[in-house]
Design a protein that fits this description.
Radius of gyration: 17 Å
Shape: elongated
Number of helices: 1
Largest sheet: 2 strands, antiparallel
Structural class: alpha+beta
Strand order of the largest sheet: 1-2
Oligomer: single chain
Helix content: 10-25%
Strand content: 35-45%
Number of strands: 4
Order of helices and strands: EEEEH
Number of domains: 1
Amino acid sequence: MSKICSICNKQITTGNNVSHSKRRTRRTWLPNLGTAKITENGQTKTITACTRCLKTLSKIKRGKK
């Protein structure tokens, strides 16, 4: 599974861990991704999306019923 959201393009962020003595070491933050099946033009596709986008998709889906 790729580390990029299919909808909003959220991806890995890098930065520093900073200790109490102000030493800096590199670190990464990973997006919280999940998979979902969506229907687009009559075809079912599996996408990788962040949880915020999945929440928005479920709200849109509930509104269409």
